[in-house]
Amino acid sequence: VGDLTSADLKGKKVFVRADLNVPLDDNQTITDDTRIRAAIPTIKYLIDNGAKVILSTHLGRPKGVTPKFSLAPLVPRLSELLGIEVTKADDCIGPEVESLVASLPEGGVLLLENVRFYKEEEKNDPEFAKKLASLADLYVNDAFGTAHRAHASTEGVTKFLKPSVAGFLLQKELDYLVGAVSNPKRPFAAIVGGSKVSSKIGVIESLLEKCDILLLGGGMIFTFYKAQGLSVGSSLVEEDKLELATELLAKAKAKGVSLLLPTDVVVADKFAPDANSKIVPASGIEDGWMGLDIGPDSIKTFNEALDTTQTVIWNGPMGVFEMEKFAAGTEAVANKLAELSGKGVTTIIGGGDSVAAVEKVGVAGVMSHISTGGGASLELLEGKVLPGVIALDEAIPVTV
Ligand code: 3PG
After folding, report:
1. Measured CA distances, 171 to 152, 236, 283 (Å)
2. What CATH number was assigned to the domain covering residues 174-381?
3. How far is the CA of 301 from the centre of ligand 1 (A)?
4. Is 339 labelled as part of a ligand binding site?
5. Does the annotation count 375 as an active-site position?
6. pTM listed for this prediction
7. Measuring from atom 6 of ligand 1, which residue has the nearest CA?
8. Each residue of 281-299: pLDDT tens digit?
9. Is the keyword Flavoprotein in the record (predicted)?
């Protein structure tokens, strides 16, 4: 079997590991069903080809069996999106599950209970993985969001269940996050934001090897400012990363990457939605003020740089966009990328907060690709090999 489309599926029991780790509110209502919708094409394909689908996911980080992490709230939405009644098991291994699998019709879907109710899942326990594997004839991993975890249902199971192939979502994520990034249409720009340099070092270093333009925003820029001798007031600074920031700037220069830091910032007198705020040049941050967004000049410069590109990848917000006063920079990037998408530029939103930003602005639908993985997309962009991907049989691109 090369991939899912060449697998013989009729009447086969297929264990599908998806990442249906969706947010639920206090009433157990799904507040964002993106991950469920993203998992549908693979499941639908399996149904349409007469497979018996055994669907598995984790939800949250439960310590043992915890009712509030049950998958029951997912069943109605899954059934609605698939157009069939999805059955749910109360466990993910054991006799009850085995008998439900035995009575599963071709084209039927059985949702197993939260696989993390067993501590053996995260321990990648071989005996547990073997029990999961024993339920099926074929393994499909479509859980991109969990592919950076070497867990029993993402990695261990492949040792006992062959063939093990990628689902359509996993494949698409890799096509964009690995394919488009390692072999981009140029010029290729990376926009990296977020509050801490420390959590983005790997991504910056890795993207510096690939991109032509690197735009930096978010709280991390103040560490770069300070490294350049600028005053940063009470902005967030990682003192132990000053040297690293200097090195990254030097590295960009040596590689001929055009690295742009914001030339102006929105500063506030406190970290609060109702703070007093003003726009100052990068060199004009006074004591008692903290930078919480990039300023209008920076937006203009970033937009001009982005106008020259053919591929853009974005990871991390430009400011504290949850607060309206400090959302303009992040929203400007989202809008610019939407505009560029319309002109045929490949636009990739790599996980986490930047996804929330494009959704807030209402432009998620026009991007070339929006990753469903936070941690997973970050690790992939850092150049790491994801355990859930490397464990599969196929020769798919595994690293940037
Ligand atoms: C995520 O939400 O990033 C994935 O579902 C992985 O969840 P985890 O961080 O709890 O492993």
Report:
1. 20, 38, 45
2. 3.40.50.1260
3. 35
4. no
5. yes
6. 0.91
7. 146
8. 999 999 999 999 999 999 9
9. no
